[in-house]
Design a protein that fits this description.
This protein is of the alpha/beta class. The chain is about 35% helix and about 30% strand. The protein is built from seven helices and ten strands. The structure holds adenosine-5'-triphosphate.
Length: about 230
Amino acid sequence: MRFELSGVTLGYGGDAVVGGLDLEVRSGEILVVVGGSGCGKSTLLRALAGLLPPRGGRILADGQPVRGPSSERALMFQEDALLPWRSARRNVELALAIRKVPDRRRHSERWLAEVGLGEHAARLPAQLSGGQRQRVQLARTLAAQPRAILMDEPFGALDAQTRAGMQQMLLDLHRANPATVVFVTHDVDEALILADRVAVLTPRGVEAVLDASAATKEEILCSLRA
Ligand SMILES: Nc1ncnc2c1ncn2[C@@H]1O[C@H](COP(=O)(O)OP(=O)(O)OP(=O)(O)O)[C@@H](O)[C@H]1O
């Protein structure tokens, strides 16, 4: 899925958060959005998800205006959004039920195996570690086969080693299931590991969009301070 934002202003109530946003998200890429706290990264994701209508400008998804939420655009947060009374497998099955996929148990087990949790399918979220719960969330998100995945600091609460494992898993899974990913983080190192391109967001809009294979940490930090 390709997104095009032109002259987009976003805000809540009387307050504008970010204005004059121009951005293209290419189909199948991992675009990482970095920016200081409060600059509007989560707000941008909400707008792409169709949860927050822009006050000005336009947001197109594959050429069509985004008018509301769609199962084609999945959101994944830092906080755990699993249902505590359902096992890992039955949490993943929910995503398959929405798509009316038959043989949900088998598919759910396959997605859990993809994220390395095949052995733990019967466990409740409370019986899993933070990193394992994020892996169940990732399996549930991917099982819905969205065309765009909007990720809001999904690994922010994990320790460094678990986080590195999750980053690699996301890259591997993206290679096999190339949906468009918009990934928000305030961690420039994480951005450089994951991104095809890095968008630097400030309250004035998108300050720069850098090719991650050529960009340096200093260059990104410099755009952040601009
Ligand atoms: N539901 C809301 N109602 C009113 N204001 C909000 C709401 N959500 C966010 N804001 C405000 O909008 C601004 C941008 O918030 P947002 O969460 O998008 O920032 P962020 O860049 O994701 O920050 P962080 O990195 O700290 O998570 C902030 O000033 C915040 O207080």
